[in-house]
Amino acid sequence: MQIKKFEAFQMSDALRAVKQELGPDAVILSAKEVRRDEGVFGVFGRPMVEVTAAVDRPAVTISVEENPPEFASLLKEAPGPARPAPESGDVQQELRAIRESIGAIQASLTVGYKQQMAGIQETWTEMKGLLRGLVEQRESSERAGLHSTLLALLDRLLENGVDRDTAVGLLRSMKHTLSPDDLWKTDVVRDSLQDLIKTMVQVSGPFECAGDRPKVVALVGPTGVGKTTTIAKLAAHHYRQTGRVTLATLDTYRIGAVEQLKIYAKIIGVPVDVATSGGELREVVARRKQGDLVLVDTAGRSHLSAGQVAELKDLGKVGIPVETHLVLSSNTKEADLDDIVDRFSVIPIDRLLFTKMDETQTYGPLFATMKKKGKPLSYLTTGQRVPEDIEVATPTRVAELVLN
Fold it and tell me: What are the structural domain ranges in the chain?
């Protein structure tokens, strides 16, 4: 009997090798999965199938009706009759054994895969539980020692979008500032917190046109934040005070942008100029007088397109200082606000102007962005009406919004 082992990546390949080398009469003795020492300590070795097969080689016989004399002696010395062909039942039994071996291997592989996935899932669950525990531990540590009145304000600040570190820092400061008796007084605690927030708010106040040349103010920002409507509101308010306002636009990209600004200019009663470059804008400014305010509208630019933002560098070609206000929507997430400010900072950003204050109830991101970027707030817009829905940003107003 001849016994031999065969290895292959697939059971079908191993069986094909058995048949080719040992023939159709080969019997499968065993089949199992093996893993060779490959990769790092064999961990990443590819699994293989090892099949052990055997065959009983029959002797060669010659069957004739009449044996010639010269073969007589050979026939006498020849072994017994050849092994008969297996019955159909034997073949079926061997095939059944092969199928059972294949099924056992597949079941083993499936169980191994399921065990690995179960291990990964268990590890992930443990990690999530650990992170949750760390967060809860941190929150518990932050809240420890805070008066119940301060805890209520902490929840309010967090709900209003103030980042946790800032909120906890504010309230810990309150804990050391107020007396134990005052900590029980909700109104006193709230007023004190509002005063503390006011000291952290940076504002620029309304436009001042003092100097020996026209004041140029440009509004820049992403698309859809309401720059054109805002510039019309600013023009109307300043015109009422001084009567010396000029509107200019660099927005020749958006369809109808120039016509929209001309309509606003006609209603307000101020001149409007269209410039296609920084050089043309310089000529517009040169025609204005000392003390005039030139409000420049620009095309909305996606902060994700460095090329579009870079086009705003034309503002530096005017030849005189340009005060740049980055217009942001109040209903934008804090992470996106940070990204927008960072990307638009390829040009000098002097002020932050927030629009759509009426479209959100969480003003913490506004406060956080101002604080992190170190840019003062100039104006807040609270609706679509021109010129009513705009106000100068003040520390008191911002503090009230942050405390909701």
Answer: 2-108, 147-200, 215-403
